[in-house]
Design brief:
Elements: H1 7-16, H2 24-57, H3 68-101, H4 110-135, E1 143-150, E2 156-161, E3 169-174, H5 176-197
Antiparallel strand pairs: 1-2, 2-3
Helix pairs in contact: 1-2, 2-3, 2-5, 3-4, 3-5, 4-5
Length: 206
């Protein structure tokens, strides 16, 4: 599977393209969805970089590299690409939210609200992890001070500590590929609702 592709998003963008010169609102929707598509691809690229570096570690870790510097570089890319992935996942959610916020309350029927409720906890979790790991890792109440562990499936962990209570601490776990695929599912479901609400489910008339 070409995981850069998101056919449902490309199809909706194609339906909006003939409308962008008719009303400003269609241009705004078109541009937001285009931006969403770009950042989704950035997220895919970040996850792929992580997976490529995990592949280099396969089986032997240190043994797979001629020098410790090469091993350390690969390990840093493994962790940093995971952090970058969550920044891009978060940006995708931001663009999704700008589109959702533009939908009038009268158009938000029970089906749409159920969709939002279904993904609410997951969205909050992505936002929290990105804010903690990528946006504000320096906060004294929760400083992110060390990467801790990685797994073959891409899962990575970071240690977080409260500088005011150094004896306490916790770990934050990132699952880039799993959350990327959840994002793909979320966007695909959102697009179905947008097409329905915008009355673009059938053949678009120019």
């Amino acid at each position: 599977m070409d995981d850069y592709k998101l056919e449902s998003l490309a199809n909706l963008i194609d339906k909006l393209r003939p409308l962008i010169d008719k009303e400003k609102i269609w241009m705004v929707r078109y541009l937001r969805l285009q931006a969403l598509f770009v950042y989704f691809q950035y997220a895919v690229a970040s996850v792929r970089i992580q997976e490529e570096n995990i592949k280099k570690m396969e089986g032997g870790q240190h043994k797979n590299f001629s020098t410790h510097a090469e091993y350390a570089d690969c390990l840093l890319k493994l962790y940093s690409s995971a952090v970058t992935a969550y920044s891009n996942l978060r940006t995708c959610l931001r663009f999704s939210m700008t589109v959702i916020d533009s939908i009038s309350k009268s158009d938000r029927d029970g089906e749409f609200n159920n969709f939002r409720n279904q993904y609410d906890l997951w969205c909050r979790d992505i936002v929290d992890k990105r804010d903690r790991i990528a946006a504000h890792p320096e906060e004294e109440a929760g400083i992110v001070w060390k990467s801790n562990m990685w797994s073959d499936n891409g899962q990575v962990k970071f240690r977080v500590i409260n500088l005011h209570i150094p004896s306490t601490g916790r770990q934050i776990t990132l699952k880039p590929r799993k959350d990327l695929e959840k994002l793909r599912e979320y966007i695909s479901q959102l697009l179905l609702h947008l097409a329905r609400i915008w009355k673009l489910t059938g053949q678009q008339k120019n």
